[in-house]
Amino acid sequence: MLQTAFNGLVTGIIVALPALAVTLLFGVLKFANFAVGAMMTVAAYMVYALNTELDWPMLPATVAAAVAFGFMCILMDLVTFKPLRERGGLTLMVASLGLGFVLENVARLAYGNAARSYAMDLARPFRFMDIRMNREQMIAFVVATLAMAVMYVLLTRMPIGRAMRAVADNPALAQVRGIDSAAIIRWTWFIAGMLLAVGGVLIGMDRAIEPPMGASYLIPVFAAAILGGLGSPLGAFVGALLIGIVSEMATLVIPPNYRIGIPLLVIAAILIFRPQGLFGQAHIRR
Amino acid sequence: MIEFIVLMGIVVCFSGILALALNFQWGLGGMVNFGLAGFYALGAYSCALLMLKGGFNTFFAALGAMVIVGAVCGLVAFVTLRVTEEDYFAIVTLGVGEMLRLVALNEDWLTKGALGLTGIPRPLGATIPPTSYPYFMLALSIALVIACLWALNRLSRSPFGRVVRAVREDDVVAATLGKNVLWARVRIFAIGGVLIGLAGSLHAFYYQYIDPTQFSTIVIAYAFMAVIAGGRGAHLGTVLGAAVVMLLLEGSRFAKELVPLEADQLAAVRIIIIGVGLILLLIYRPHGFLREYRLQATLKEERPEPQPNTPKEAAT
Amino acid sequence: MKAKGFTRRNALKLLGAAAATPLTAPFLNLAHAQGATIPIGVALPMTGNAGAYGPDMGEAAKRTAERINKAGGILGGRKLELFIEDSESSASVAANLSQKFINVHRCQSLVGYWGTPEGMASRPIAIQNKVVLMVSSAANAITEGGSDGYVWRFQMKATDWGIVISRATEKLGFKSFGVMGLQNAFVLPIMRVFEERMTAGGRKVMDSLVYNPEQPSYRAEVERIFGKKPEAVYCFGLLPDFVSIIREVYRGGFDSKVVALSIMADAEGKFVQAVGPQVAEGIRHFQPMPDVSAPGYKRFLQLMGAPADRVLLFPPNTHDQIAMTALAMEKAKSPMAVDWSKQMIPVGNGPGEAVDDVLAGLEQLRSGKSINFQGAGSICDFTPNGDQLGRGMGQWIIKGGKQVFVEYARP
Amino acid sequence: MSEIFRVEGLHAGYGAGDILKGVDLRVEEGTVVTIIGPNGSGKSTLVKTLAGLLRARQGDILLKGTSIRELSPPQRVHAGISYVPQEYNVFRNLTVLENLKIAREFMSGGRAKGPVVSDELVALFPELPSRFKALAGNLSGGQRQMLAFACALAVKPGLLIMDEPSAGLSPKYMTDIFDCIRKVNGTGVSVLMVEQNAIEALRISDECIVMATGRVRMCSPAASVLEMPDLQTLYLGDAATGQEPWASKSAA
User: Fold this and answer.
1) Is C240 within 8 Å of A260 when comparing Cβ atoms?
2) What confidence category does residue B316 fall into, taking pLDDT thresholds of 50, 70 and 90?
3) What value does the mean pLDDT take over residues A57-68?
4) Which domains does chain A possess?
5) CB contact under 8 A, A173 and D91
């Protein structure tokens, strides 16, 4: 029982980073980015290339890939989303679907379908009050909590973070307060890209690296972002943990292969009873 | 060779009807349906099961499938749209689509799970000899496509059609005009569902065997590509879009000799082309090859329709 | 029915673009197909969840056909022409391919068809068009319901897998079991037979569940099955899901023995490469396999240029499919399936002189003798409804990252 | 006095038609100029265009003689123009202090020195320090207007443009707002504002501009306009003759 709750926490932690990225992107750019899954896949393969082909240890490989992927996201935004900036959330969403197909299949083109894993030897678990924790899960906890702390400080203490929240709150006013929205959008994509890269690595470590790995996380990630209140980063983190725990605990009751239904039920419930999510502010649509 | 073209013609027809459904839901009604594959599977399985288990003949089975998918779509729209904007709607349809596919995969007692349903009868399958059946089916499919086009065109020109477009332009404005927005959206999505049910039934009749692998996310990619290429909102354009997408895909299968890629890379490249094409068309040809139907004819009585997407305050 | 916005110029531009697509390409080489060559359609999964198995099978078919063509082809010098296509592990794509093979390339023999959905979707098409369909998928339904001799299986029936694995398990002496299966057409019959025989034999199946392909994680499944600490856990599925499950098992510190299928625990070496020898240590796996001692298999290894100890599981099937097509056509003296489909059993089962080289077989048929072809993948004996007899199953255990052969057993 | 701001032949609008059909106006340094006119005369469109939120289609906008037509809104802020929109003029999901911090950090283009909230600002807006931690969205209408005003002054601007600062305010806050404007102007900041409250606004203004149907119809000292007998007719047009009162006077 306790182990299942812990497993839920682990699933939640892995969902947290991409959920954070989705919330950030939705806050500033006002559209649900359906390419997040494929973006994580591409980043995971970049780290795989550095790790196995160039024999970099995991940490430098992940850091380098994260920074590189941040810039790649800025480029992808310029090419795909910037020309559509004025066309409303729906068009952007469909464009992100197209981008998702492209990215997943670029990974498939380069590395084929076989499941692969990083060159790090698996370790037997630590035992702690009859809960089993393995090394990857520990790393995931540390990395995700660290990322959340950095994000919290950035968004509340640093000018860049405040500016991002300002643009999310009221883009026109932000301009008139001297904020260069284009720069803030670049920053948002860069940070979201780094979060997605680390998220992709955590999935790759937890499970295996294969082209559809990112896509299988789409529904839980969106559920977490919505549960937390789209636009509220803290909400996304808590939402992710809740989604993780609820779906793992549910497997004690329902057959495990319907587990994907849980995040869906959560989304439906949230949309009906509390659309702005747990922490989000009701969106004022001008 | 002719027979293969006839068979591909049939596939284009029911892919076209599926694209028409998406076009109606998204292109006209402004509601993005990312669960298309799941609803499509629901249509095909309902039709097959009504025949195999329910004993209905092909006509009533197809009718039943259309009603079922229409009702489910209406229910999803009703539950989800009562509260929120359409961004969340896409996410919910994604989830519902995935759930429907899972049910088809896991409920062996009903759908025989991964083994799929085989021996699905076809309209007049018994009376028409197999060798000339494809020609009959092509004629039937083309007739159905024309019927759908005719019905959708009449619907677009009717008052309900104007409500549909008003809802897409800006549902707040539409609400203020007294149109019951929620009810309009539920009906829009349900009518789209009916078309999906028809396309699903034709799929089942054509392949005579259905299993979960036939309803993967690639179906969604092809449908969106067809709608965007054909020009959102333009019914005939959407069908032509579906034809072009199908020719591109089947054509690329023939192109194996021309393309130096290995087979497994060719499949990946094909989807990359679809993805890139989707984005480029959205940017450079937002109206696809054919303009959305305009009410120029009735200019005299009413002031002309507003531009489809007048740029709101230029914020940059 | 001219819609307002649909100008003629747009229409021509659109149709012009459509016609210019490579659709025109096949017309060029269609002309000479009628006369000289004999077209054979080969549908194999190069992508999708079974994408790992297609490429090698395609290579085997290509080399077999080349070898026959080099030796003068069949039916008085006509060459075999293969059309190898990717079925994308999808039933609808496979069905469209089958239509294309029959209607465009005029094939009378469709081979490959690794996955059950692809085989099931193509079955009605082949029977209606009186064309032979040779599959290498295991689900029983493929050969059920009568096929007028047009559907042949080059693989062991799923239920037979269950029988052989159960009998071997009795020898291994495990007392309590957990069972995990991928939601897949050929897995379920194996699981059912295995569980029936185990409980019949008084052994205890503690828990059994089915999971979906491409799940975000398999933690809950592993926790539920391995958590009950059965002596051994039997896993039936494919490579991607098994890699995730085994990593979860190792990192979870579970110590039940793991038994699986070779398509999961070997997959031409991809499994050990993905999880590493340490994690793969001690995993036992079964798979219908060619009789490695058979001369036909040894000659096939040379044809493929593969090292002697390497065990190729599926490529021998496509080799046998091409070989049987050529031999049956030669015996029936006609490329039309309606004729040579009746020669499948005489050529495969005999009576006649046992032959394990397709070229030798062709020579003897030309000189009027009857043969009993012994293929690379199996002895190629069939039942009237198309099932293949005499297939054996190999058992391996992974030691130090190497596949150590244990025993070969027949149902 | 030298001229700080000039607009020549400005054309702008949303979508197809032009709402501004050739606007010309000047603001002398250190003065307060109020623009009045009936609804739909293009007042709000004008200030949005001056702030850069709307592209100018024709004509030019000059700050201290140099054209700022090509500058983006942030660049215009760094050049010294502060703009207070009529509504949605604060970041509701951020705290009062954060609103001020953003204004300070970004309006100065990084040149801001000294404390976030200068004493001068606290003097002008005594109520704010007590509500620093509160979310701007939770403030009352008047307090929000004050905050918006304070943010616009976080970095001393050359010209302050305001879009109906007194809209929707209780009388107490209305007098406070105009009081503040007068004090701010006292410190050398020129002010250009659009106002419905003509009388209150003109009392503290030097110049009055009357706009109608997208053009400046009249420009004259605020005092003389105040003395005009029937200010309403000026505002709503002469009901009887249907003729605009300024028709007779040629635009200044």
Assistant:
1) no
2) very low
3) 92
4) 2-113+130-273 (1.10.3470)
5) yes
Look at residues C159, C397, C401 and name the one whose alpha carbon lies nearest to residue C257: C397
Q: Are the C-beta atoms of D204 and D32 separated by less than 8 Å?
A: yes
Digit-coded pLDDT (tens) for C326-385 = 999 998 888 898 899 988 888 888 888 888 888 898 898 888 888 888 888 888 888 888
Tell me if C101 sits within 8 A of C39, measured CB to CB. yes
Nearest to C85 among B7, B240, B263 (CB): B263
What is the residue whose two structure tokens read 């190898």? C84
Q: Which of C46, C89, C211, C217 is most worth mutating to test chain A (most A CB atoms within 10 A of its CB)? A: C217
Q: How many domains does chain D have?
A: 1
- CB spacing of A177 vs D102 below 8 angstroms: yes
Residues on C contacting A at a C-beta cutoff of 8 Å:
47-49, 51-52, 183, 209-212, 214-221, 223-224, 227, 239-240, 243-244, 247, 250-253, 267, 270, 273-276, 278-279
> What is the dotted CATH code of the domain comprising C159-289+392-409?
3.40.50.2300
Residue range B148-156: mean pLDDT, rounded = 88
Q: Do residues C125 and C102 touch, judged by C-beta distance below 8 A?
A: yes
One DSSP character per residue, A43-91 reads HHHHHHIIIIIS---HHHHHHHHHHHHHHHHHHHIIIIIGGGGGGHHHH
Structure confidence by residue, pLDDT tens digits, A204-226: 988 889 888 998 898 899 888 88
Of all residues in chain D, the one with the smallest CA distance to B316 is D53
Of all residues in chain C, the one with the smallest CA distance to B234 is C5
Q: Cα separation of C119 and C133, whole Å?
A: 8
Task: Break chain C into its structural domains and give their ranges.
Answer: 13-154+295-347, 159-289+392-409
CATH 1.10.10 fits B2-315, yes or no: no
Q: Is D15 on the interface with B (CB under 8 A)?
A: yes
Determine the Cα–Cα distance for residues A27 and A171; give it in Å rounded to an integer.
10
Q: Check B236 against C6: CB less than 8 A apart.
A: yes
Query: Position C288: which residue type?
Result: P
Side-chain half-sphere exposure of A15, counting CA atoms within 13 A: 37
| Range D29-42 average pLDDT | 85
CA distance A127 to A133: 6
Strands D207-212, C109-112: pairing is unpaired
Residue D78 lies in a domain: yes
Q: What distance lies between CA C106 and its chain's CA centroid?
A: 23
Q: Which residues of A touch B271 (CB under 8 A)?
A: 101-102, 104-105
CA distance A208 to A166: 38
Which residues of D have a CB under 8 Å from any CB of A? 51-53, 72-74, 77-78, 83, 85, 88-94, 98, 101-103, 105-109, 137, 151
Q: What is the pLDDT of residues B68-105, one digit of tens each?
A: 999 999 999 888 877 656 677 888 888 899 899 889 98
User: What is the arrangement of strands in the sheet containing D20-28, beginning at the earlier edge strand?
Assistant: D20-28, D3-12, D58-63, D66-67
How sure is the predictor about C132, in pLDDT bands with cuts at 50, 70 and 90?
Answer: very high
Q: Let me know if the fold of C13-154+295-347 is the same as that of C159-289+392-409.
A: yes
Please state, as a whole number, how many other Cβ atoms lie within 10 Å of the Cβ of residue C168: 17
Q: How many CA atoms lie within 13 A of C142 on its CB side?
A: 33
Q: What is the CATH number of domain C13-154+295-347?
A: 3.40.50.2300
- Distance CA(B15)–CA(B37), nearest Å, equals 12
Structural domain of residue D150, as residue ranges?
3-241
